[in-house]
Every structure is written in structure tokens, then in C-alpha cells.
Design goal:
This protein is of the alpha/beta class. The chain has 14 helices and five strands. The longest helix has 28 residues. The chain is globular and about 70 Å long. The protein starts with a helix and ends with a helix. Bound molecules: adenosine-5'-diphosphate (ADP) and magnesium ion.
């Protein structure tokens, strides 16, 4: 037994063991290839070390991004590259590219994406969330209904504080499809908790002017809006559902937005000039 152990130790590569202990799996897995590469390119010791570090960092970044994408719970894979800006002239591509740089997330600001069904709100929210992850931020995606249900459940189990703390962890919280909420006061607690510390991206097919009725409680609605709009970017998407474009083109459908999701078309989405009036006060 003791002899077998000695043989093992003698044959095991001490470098391999050290790389494992330092958790440098990128270097460890490709060591021979990397050293060959360095030798072929006549790299100095310093250059070789740089090459090894670069590979390790690339591996760690890749792993972090994979893990963060899993933890974000995006409902689909959507990227900015796949967004057809020409089909959606009410969106300024420059503004989206600015937001994709994720500075607003560093500053704990909010983005409100408003517009009728099918115009790409969820697509853009996932795509911006993905950019945030690439930039190194933690992101969590949820729908408003799921979010409020989980807050209500935690409240019932006297764990609300714990839940609010967990939801204040990700640097960006995406709340998709904000509509009628029966427990708006719980949502208010979350918004207060994250205020000026964590960014939120909220999508809704209701204009800001409608939120008073959407939340059933105008006082709570005002308090929520007050915090959300303080440092915010409000984007209103107009136009027809992207989903129905192809069908419309083939003549299957005549009226825009007909039969697409809840009965909230572009007509019921009042202009967001109201929201803009409420916009940044500082
Ligand atoms: P919303 O959330 O506003 O209801 P979605 O983001 O779910 O709309 O968009 C509906 C579908 O249409 C999705 O599959 C989305 O990827 C696609 N889509 C919407 N707008 C665009 C666009 N401008 N370019 C490419 N795909 C789009
Ligand atoms: Mg959506």
C-alpha cells in the first residue's frame, strides 16, 4: 500500500498538482500544447508566462459568463445582433448601443421599456441583460407575476426580508411584463430596497400614466414611480407586432396587433410624454 503511494507520488507531475491547487485549470489542461506553442514561437520566459495567464483568464471569463447566463434565467437566447432595428424605427439604435455599454447598471439606474405586445421588449431586455453579463455584472431575469408571487409567498412565510435581500443581490434585475399587480406594496418594497444601489430593467405594455390603475393603489404607484423614474431611461416602442409582420405581409392578417396577446394595442398605449415629464429630476 505504502509502496503504491510512493510510486504514485513519484510519477505524479508536481507542476500538475500545483496548477490544480491554484485552480489554474486553463493552464493545466493545455499545458503541453501551450509550452509547445511558446517554444515554436521562441517566446521568452516572460512572454510564455503572459501566454499562460491569457489562456487562464480567457478560460475563467468563459466559465463565469456561462455560469452567469445560467443564473440569470433568461427565458430564451436573444442577442442585440439579432435585433432588426430597421423593422422598429421608434427605437434609436444609438440609445440601445449606449445602454449595451452597461454604464447605467454601474450607476444603479433604471430602464423602462414600454410598448404594445410583440414589439421586442422582452428581446431587448434579454439582449441588454446578456451585454451586462459580458461586462461582468450579475443579472436576474423574472416576470412581474412570478416576482410578486414569490414575494407574497415569502411574506406569508415570514421570510420577506430574506427574499428582498436575495433580490437586491444581482446588479441588474429585469422585471418583464409589468401589468396589473395585486400586491403592489410588496413590489414597492423591492423597488425601495434596490433604489440607487441596483439597476432595474422593467418592461410593460402599459404607459407610465396607466400605472396608477395598474397597481390598484395610486399612492403606492406614485411611490414606485418616484423611485423608478428618478434615475431612468424611458424608451417607448411604437408600431406593430414583429411576430405578426410575416403574417401581415402574406395577407393572412389585416389589422395590426389583432389577436396578439392581451387586448392592449398601440392605441391603448398612451404617449409617454407623461413619463417624460416625470423623468429625471436631477
Ligand atoms: P414583446 O416582449 O414586446 O411582446 P418580444 O420581445 O417577445 O415582444 O418579441 C416577439 C418576437 O419577435 C420574439 O421572438 C422577438 O425575438 C421577435 N422580435 C421582435 N422585434 C424584433 C426585431 N425588431 N428584430 C428581430 N426580432 C424581433
Ligand atoms: Mg414580452
Amino acid at each position: 500500500m505504502a509502496r503504491a503511494k510512493n510510486i504514485m507520488e513519484a510519477t505524479a507531475d508536481p507542476l500538475d498538482a500545483m496548477l490544480a491547487r491554484l485552480q489554474l485549470s486553463g493552464i493545466r489542461d493545455q499545458l503541453d500544447t501551450l509550452l509547445d506553442e511558446a517554444a515554436r514561437s521562441n517566446l521568452s520566459a516572460r512572454e510564455t508566462l503572459i501566454l499562460l495567464c491569457e489562456r487562464e483568464i480567457a478560460r475563467k471569463d468563459h466559465r463565469r459568463i456561462e455560469m452567469a447566463l445560467k443564473l440569470a434565467h433568461f427565458p430564451a437566447v436573444k442577442e442585440l445582433a439579432g435585433f432588426d432595428f430597421e423593422a422598429q424605427p421608434s427605437i434609436d439604435p444609438k440609445q440601445i448601443r449606449d445602454l449595451a455599454a452597461s454604464r447605467w447598471i454601474a450607476n444603479g439606474e433604471n430602464v423602462l421599456l414600454l410598448g404594445p405586445p410583440g414589439v421586442g421588449k422582452t428581446h431587448l431586455s434579454i439582449a441588454l441583460g446578456r451585454e451586462a453579463i459580458l461586462a461582468g455584472y450579475t443579472v436576474q431575469f423574472t416576470t412581474a407575476t412570478t416576482l410578486v408571487a414569490s414575494l407574497a409567498k415569502a411574506h406569508g412565510e415570514r421570510r420577506l426580508d430574506e427574499k428582498l435581500l436575495a433580490l437586491s443581490k444581482p446588479k441588474l434585475l429585469i422585471v418583464d411584463e409589468l401589468g396589473y399587480l395585486h400586491a403592489a406594496h410588496l413590489f414597492f418594497q423591492l423597488v425601495s430596497r434596490r433604489y440607487e444601489t441596483g439597476a432595474m430593467l422593467i418592461t410593460s405594455n402599459r404607459s407610465v400614466a396607466e400605472w396608477g390603475t395598474v397597481f390598484a393603489d395610486p399612492v403606492v404607484a406614485t411611490a414606485i414611480l418616484d423611485r423608478l423614474l428618478h434615475h431612468s431611461h424611458v424608451l417607448t416602442i411604437r408600431g406593430d407586432s414583429y411576430r405578426l409582420r410575416a403574417k401581415r405581409k402574406s395577407g393572412l392578417i389585416k389589422t395590426p396587433t389583432a389577436g396578439d396577446g392581451p387586448p392592449v394595442g398601440s392605441a391603448s398605449l398612451r404617449p409617454v410624454t407623461g413619463a417624460n415629464n416625470l423623468q429625471p429630476r436631477s
